[in-house]
Design brief:
elongated; 6 strands; CBS-domain; MgtE N-terminal fold; Tetracycline Repressor, domain 2; mainly alpha; about 450 residues
C-alpha cells in the first residue's frame, strides 16, 4: 500500500526528473516511508529504479528491504544483475537470505555468482538452515570480543565493528573456537573502569537458542525476557549468529496472522488480502468452507434420526438453534483461549489434565448460567406453541440440554487444540469453525437424547 502523504510528492519528482531532490527524499525520510511512497500502481518498476538510483547504494539497500516481497521480486527482475548483486552485498544478512529464498533458483544463482566471495559464503551458510528455524531467522552481523581484554581495548574494537553489526548493544564474548563465554552490554562497558577486564563484566549464563529451534520458541524467549537480541548456537555450542527483536516482531505478526486465518476457517495467506489473486483467495476460502459444509451435513443425518421426536413434540424443534449455538459458542471460546495460550507458551499438550480439570468446572459454571436463562425462556413459551407438554418439564429439559451442551462444547474446545498439537497438527485448525461444526452435530444428539428421557410419554 502506498504512503498517502508522500506518494504524490514522489510522483512529482519523477515527472520533473529531479535527481537531487530524489536523493534528499531518500536520504531524509525513513526507508520504510520511501518504500511505501514508491509502492504505487501508478509508479512502474522502471520508475522505482530511476528514483532509487538517484541515491547511494547503501540507501537503496535500506529502502529495498521495506518493499513487499512481491515488489522485491519484480525489482530484481527490473534491474541489471551486477547492480542487484551490489545491493545484496549492502543488505543485512537475514534480509538478503529471505529475498534469495523467494527468487527463482536460476535468478538467485546468477546473482550469487556476482556477489563478493565472503558474502557468498555467508549466504550459503544461512540458506542451508530450514525455514522457520532460528538459523533461517538469524543474522551473522553481531559484535563480539575476546574475554581477556580491557574495556578500553573493547571499545576500540567495537568502533571498528559497529558499521557492520546489526546491533552493538549486546556484545558477545567468545573464545578461540567461537564458543560463547558470556554477554556484556554496551552500557556496562561504557560505565565500567577503563582498565577493567571484559570477563569480569560479562554475564556468564546468557539465554541462548539452538540453530534448529523453531522460530516460535525464539520469539517466546525474546519477548519473555524483553531482550533486544538472542545468541544462536550450533550443536558444538559455537556462536553462529543472533536473532534481533525486529525479526521477532515479524515472526509474531506472521504467526498471529496465520492463527487468526485458521481460526476463521481460511488457509493462511502468503500475501496481503488485496494483493492475493482472486482465484487463489477463492480456493483458500472455498476449500475450508466446503469441508465444513460437508461436516455440517451430518446435522441433517442427526436430525433425521430424531424425526419421530420432532413430530411428536414440535416445540422441541424451535429450541434446536438455541441449543446447538450454545455448544458452538462455548467450544469456540474455549478453543480460542487454549490456542492463544499455547501460542504464548503458557501451556502445552502435557498440561492437558490441568486444563481438563479447569474447564470441567468452568463448563459447569457457564452451563448453569446459560441453563437458568434457557429455563426462563422455555417457561414463558405460549401454550399454543408448547402444546400438551408440561411447561416446567419442558423448561427443565431445555435448561439441562443447554447446560450439558455448553459443558460438552467447552471440553471439546479446550481438548481438541491440545490433541492436535500432540499429533503435530496446527492447533489453529481446531478452533472456531472446526469445533463449532463438531459440537453442532453432537449437540443435536445430546439435546434429543435428554428430551426423550424426560418427555418419553409424549413419544407414543
Amino acid at each position: 500500500m502506498s504512503h498517502p502523504l508522500f506518494t504524490p510528492e514522489a510522483r512529482l519528482l519523477l515527472e520533473k526528473d529531479d535527481r537531487a531532490a530524489m536523493d534528499v527524499f531518500c536520504d531524509t525520510l525513513h526507508p520504510a516511508t520511501v518504500a511505501e511512497s514508491l509502492t504505487d500502481d501508478a509508479i512502474s518498476v522502471e520508475d522505482v529504479w530511476r528514483f532509487l538510483n538517484a541515491t547511494t547504494i547503501a540507501n537503496q539497500a535500506a529502502i529495498f528491504v521495506y518493499f513487499p516481497l512481491e515488489w522485491q521480486v519484480q525489482l530484481v527482475e527490473g534491474t541489471g544483475r551486477p547492480h542487484m548483486a551490489r545491493l545484496i552485498e549492502q543488505m543485512s544478512h537475514d534480509d538478503r537470505v529471505d529475498l534469495l529464498r523467494r527468487l527463482e533458483p536460476k535468478v538467485a544463482e546468477s546473482l550469487l555468482r556476482l556477489v563478493d566471495e565472503a558474502d557468498r559464503r555467508d549466504i550459503a551458510t544461512l540458506v542451508k538452515y530450514p525455514e522457520n528455524t532460528a538459523g533461517a531467522l538469524m543474522t551473522t552481523d553481531y559484535a563480539w570480543l575476546p574475554a581477556n581484554i580491557t574495556v578500553d581495548q573493547a571499545l576500540d574494537r567495537l568502533r571498528l565493528q559497529a558499521p557492520d553489526s546489526e546491533t552493538i548493544y549486546y556484545v558477545y564474548v567468545v573464545d578461540e573456537q567461537r564458543r560463547l563465554l558470556g554477554v556484556v552490554t554496551l552500557r556496562e562497558l561504557i560505565l565500567a573502569p577503563r582498565k577493567a577486564i571484559v570477563s569480569e563484566l560479562m554475564d556468564k549464563q546468557p539465554v541462548t537458542v539452538k540453530v534448529n529451534d523453531d522460530r516460535e520458541k525464539v520469539a517466546q524467549e525474546i519477548t519473555r525476557l524483553d531482550l533486544l537480541a538472542i545468541p544462536v548456537l550450533d550443536a558444538e555450542n559455537r556462536l553462529v549468529g543472533i536473532v534481533t527483536y525486529d525479526d521477532v516482531i515479524d515472526v509474531v505478526v506472521s504467526e498471529a496472522t496465520e492463527d487468526v486465518h485458521r481460526m476463521g476457517g481460511v488457509a493462511p495467506l502468503e500475501e496481503s488480502y488485496l494483493e492475493t489473486g482472486f482465484l487463489k483467495l477463492w480456493w483458500k476460502r472455498a476449500f475450508w468452507l466446503s469441508t465444513l459444509f460437508g461436516a455440517e451435513l451430518l446435522t441433517f443425518t442427526a436430525l433425521a434420526s430424531f424425526e419421530d421426536a420432532i413430530a411428536a413434540v414440535v416445540v422441541l424443534s424451535l429450541f434446536v438453534p438455541l441449543c446447538i449455538s450454545t455448544g458452538g459458542n462455548s467450544g469456540s471460546q474455549a478453543a480460542t483461549l487454549i490456542t492463544r495460550a499455547m501460542a504464548l507458551g503458557q501451556i502445552g499438550p502435557g498440561d492437558w489434565l490441568r486444563v481438563l480439570r479447569h474447564e470441567i468446572f468452568m463448563g459447569l459454571a457457564l452451563g448453569i448460567t446459560l441453563g437458568v436463562i434457557g429455563y426462563g425462556r422455555a417457561l414463558i413459551t405460549p401454550d399454543s406453541v408448547r402444546g400438551p407438554v408440561d411447561p416446567y418439564r419442558l423448561a427443565f429439559v431445555i435448561s439441562l440440554a443447554v447446560a450439558s451442551i455448553c459443558l460438552w462444547g467447552t471440553l471439546v474446545g479446550s481438548m481438541l487444540p491440545l490433541l492436535f498439537k500432540r499429533l503435530g497438527i496446527d492447533p489453529g485448525i481446531a478452533s472456531s469453525p472446526f469445533v463449532a461444526t463438531f459440537v453442532d452435530v453432537t449437540g443435536i444428539i445430546i439435546y434429543f437424547t435428554i428430551a426423550k428421557c424426560f418427555l418419553s410419554q409424549h413419544f407414543g
